Amino acid sequence: MVAFHSHEQLVSAVADATFERPPALVANAHITGLSVARALSAHEVPVIAVDRTGDGVAPPSTHVDFAGEVTYPLDDRQAFREDVEAIATAAGTDLVGFGCMDEWVHALVDTEPDGVRLPFSGRAVIDDVLDKSSLYEIAEQLGVPYPETVPLTPETDAAAVTDRLGLPLVVKPALKREFEEAVGTNVIEVESEDDLRDVVDLAAEQDIEIMAQRRIDTVRGRDHSLASYRGPDGETLSLVGNARVRNPLDFGTSCLVERSSEPVIEERALAVLDEAGYHGISEAEFVYCPDREEYLLLDVNTRPWKWIGLPVAAGANLPYAAYADATDGTYEHEGVEDARWVYLPDYLDLLATADGFRDRLGRGDWTALVDGSFEDTGELTTAVYRPADPGPAYRALRTAVGGEEYYCAC
Fold first, then answer.
1. What's the pTM value of the predicted model, to 2 decimals?
2. CB environment 209-231: b (16+ within 10 A), e (fewer)
3. Which GO molecular function entries does the Swiss-Prot or TrEMBL record give (predicted)?
4. Hey, what CATH class is 223-302+307-342+344-382 in?
5. Sorting pLDDT into bands at 50, 70 and 90, what band is 354?
6. Measured between alpha carbons, how far is residue 294 from residues 94, 136, 212, 300 in Å?
7. How confident is the model at residue 1 (pLDDT cuts 50, 70, 90)?
8. 356 burial class (0-12, 13-18, 19+ CB within 10 angstroms)?
9. What is the H or E stretch that residue 27 is in?
10. Which residues neighbour 176 within 8 Å (Cβ) at sequence distance 6 or greater?
């Protein structure tokens, strides 16, 4: 376990170290960053985890070599750039940057810190993929189905929109992180024309592009995503994950994900990434629409995400594949196997509180979780809890019983 340093202390600690290969700079330092750190550490990559606060679960991990503070890029991008450059200078070698939330990815791309290699596409390509307006234009060109969508502006006729899409409908931003910062969520369910007008007015005040979508009555357990790393040469390492359980059950975040075989998901996702020219780690999210009897493209996240530990456990170490390309190295894998990923706090919460929820883990799974043997098989992995690396789970427990809340869920 390493201490979470102030920026000055972090720079000093890095300067005192000697690196035989470029360290990875992982930002931010919570659940996703922890999974990235573990994936890279498995290949002996030194990891520097940075964040605006030390309250995340990654800093206490034995797989993090250094942890410390940098300026939050949404507060001051130039200061963020200077902080990162100071770390690179102290390391005496290039860093390989891994942004684990949209704002950190954008900050690395936009500020281009000296001494940092980025294993993903530039801002123009990322925006084409992250921005739902341009993403759905690509999908339309390729014949990839997506939810029925109407752009919203202050001049939009709310009555016409509700007549077309029905009520309730959902409102989403073109770029979700800026909307989430302003509103506190990235999806708003609208029940009336007046509610729709209120959301449009709010978005206009914040200068945020939004859109209305027909609400999809999804089928629990049918959501799928393509987890992939696409290299600059187009070579792709991928796995389809099925979000078997969410918390809340209908529209929550994934807490049990399994490897799945859905060729149409892989085909459609890779077609979109290829058309956009994107390279790097990504998650392409699809939801099953029973009315249309097909999978609809919702989103593409151009970065690691919460359950990225699943492809790693299954044999597709996406973070290390990206690192190897960025450092002119090689990554050889022996194929992809079946695996499952669980985020225990949310899953246990459902078992305790959700009426009618049936446990999808068996006695053998629970026994393996309790005695720690799951760490040796690769068939089941966890987001945070690992007996061989107890610091993150301890940090999560402290937070759950009244410690300082981290500023985002991932």
1. 0.95
2. bbbbbbbbebeeebbbbbbbbbb
3. ATP binding; ligase activity; metal ion binding
4. alpha beta
5. very high
6. 45, 16, 20, 18
7. low
8. exposed
9. strand 24-27
10. 102, 186, 299
Q: Which of 209, 225, 212, 176 is nearest to 408 (CA)?
A: 176
Amino acid, res. 341: W
Token pair for 188: 């708003």
For 139, residues 6+ apart whose C-beta sits below 8 A from its C-beta are 145, 146, 272, 297
| Burial of 143 from C-beta contacts in 10 A (0-12 / 13-18 / 19+) | exposed
Is the preceding omega at residue 145 within 30 degrees of 0, hence cis? no
Does domain 148-214 bear CATH number 3.40.47.10?
Answer: no
Joined tokens for residue 91 = 């390391």
| φ, ψ at 344 (rounded to 5°) | -60, -40
Which residues, 6 or more positions from 120, have their beta carbon under 8 angstroms from its beta carbon?
Answer: 105, 109, 126, 278, 279, 280, 281, 302, 303, 322
Q: Pick from 46, 56, 31, 9: which is nearest to 385 by CA?
A: 31
Angle (nearest 5°) at CA 99 between 95 and 105:
110
CATH code 1.10.8.100 for 4-120: no
Name the band, by pLDDT with cuts 50, 70 and 90, for residue 223.
very high
What are the φ and ψ backbone dihedral angles of 298, each rounded to 5 degrees? -100, -50
What's the confidence (pLDDT) of residue 295?
A: 97
What does the buried/exposed string (b/e) look like for 95-122 if buried means 16 or more CB atoms within 10 Å of the residue's CB? Answer: bbbbbbbbbbbbbbbebebebbbbbbbe
Q: What pLDDT digit, counting tens, does each position of 253-300 carry?
A: 999 999 999 999 999 999 999 999 999 999 999 999 999 999 999 999
Please state, as a whole number, how many other Cβ atoms lie within 10 Å of the Cβ of residue 163.
11
Q: Which residue has the tokens 């225990």?
A: 344
| Cβ atoms of 356 and 8 closer than 8 Å | no
Cα 400 to Cα 349: distance, rounded to the nearest angstrom = 12
Q: What are the extents of the domains in the chain?
A: 4-120, 148-214, 223-302+307-342+344-382
How far apart CA 96 and CA 267 sit, in angstroms, is 30
Q: Residue 138, Cβ neighbours under 10 Å: how many? A: 20
> For 315, what's the count of Cα atoms within 13 Å in the CB-facing half-sphere?
11
Please choose, from the candidates 99, 81, 126, 120, the residue with its C-alpha nearest in 3D space to the C-alpha of residue 36. 99
User: Which helix or strand (DSSP H or E) is residue 69 part of?
Assistant: strand 66-69
Look at strands 95-99 and 169-173 and give their pairing.
unpaired
